[in-house]
Hints:
elongated, mainly beta, Immunoglobulin-like, six-stranded parallel sheet
Amino acid sequence: MPGFGWLHRPSITLALLAISTFNGQISTVKAQGTAFTYQGQLNSNGSSANGVYDLQFTLFDAAQNGNQIGAALISSAVTVNNGAFATTLDFGPGVFAGPSRWLAIGARSRGGGTFTALTPVQQITPAPYAIFAETSGNVGPSSVTAAQLNTASAPASGQVLSCNGSSLVWANPAGGSASGWSLTGNSGTIPGVDFLGTTDYEPLELWVDGSRAFRLEPANGQPNVVGGSGTTVSPGAAGATIGGGTANTISPDAAGTASNPTIGGGTHNMVYGDYATVPGGLGNVATGYCSFAAGHLANASQQGAFVWADSQPDSFFSGGNDSFSIRAQGGVQLDPSTSLFFGSQTRQMLNLYGTAYGIGVQNETLFFRSDGNYANSGDFSWFRGGSFDGDQNQPGSGGQEMMRLDHNGNLSVASLPITRCHFTNDVATAHLGPMAQDFYAAFNVGSDEKHIAVVDEGGVALAAIQGLNEKLEQKEARIQQQGAEIQELKQSVADLKKMVQMLAERR
């Protein structure tokens, strides 16, 4: 049998990670078993051995005359190259529990007879004792006592576990050696020094019932405040606020900015762009600069647009930049005490085309206001049918002017009913004219609704003639204007024809 000499380098290939929580139990996460790798150097007759050998490993609790720990292990057919070898040993659980251990090794040629003992026995160095971390040293695997935490007693209500530099201690969070926030409140806090939050560029979140309820996000000095469930502020937004609700979204606009936008709450609301606002509601969208959308399916897509939509199922869009749009199929009501002017009288005025024109109520009496600085600008006309085309005192296509009150206070009638009639005391004589009731209802002149005075009828006729003459003058002016426009268009067409001809000749 050759004489063997050896040198060993034991090592552990895996480490054990133990995590403990101080709630009366120890939670242990095991990263390995009990096996470890043993490396050594084998010499044969004074030279480094080469070949295949069988190795025997026996564990003892003392260097001499010790007790054997567990069964001996045999590693068969171990390849030795220039004396170096490595093999895996596993003596099972509970072997490396703290006391020292020694390893006796024997060697023989592969498949040979008895093992030749190698001397001296080798003490196991600390590497295998990493297994001992499974039970966190002398701390039990299921509980941690106050003594093991180097504390005299269990914590008082409201105390937190803190490190005083050498050991773990229980302390009050508002003072002493601990720094924290108490469940029963804090006192003596200093603004700018004591705070709850982060000091790096990371968000701070508050959770309730396993779900995120509130999030504070850094945004280059303009933090975003994001409340609610499933709500989102996309990158690029700064100073954004979502007060709460569900599935609300703030994102940058097409230019890539979203400065100080706001969603108060509600659900499925969206804001894109700078200073846009949705106070709440359902399915509202504000995309214009300084726009506002509220209610149900309101869409403020223009700059400065204000849109409020009722509960109808269709989207309602803004009418343009700086517009005020309301969809209220149940009607719009003003508080009777609303006052536009100082004084004891109550006024409600709906302005049309600026403050110079309007219709309103004063002391339960309908009244009008219009600009009288220009000829005919103060007229009011009552139309039946038609569609507005922008022309003064014109009902538009398919319409009929029924009555007009001009800027001088004169009333004219465009369609006063004219009938063939007779007097009750002279049934044989036919007459043509308005009925007394219609005449009185239209002009409110005369002694009663049963008589028509000659002077009143003549005055109305003169007013009608004046009105007709005014219309003719307006139409004549319009015809002249249209004639000039037509002539201008003809000249433009002629010039265009010349240009086309010149281009054709150049080809």
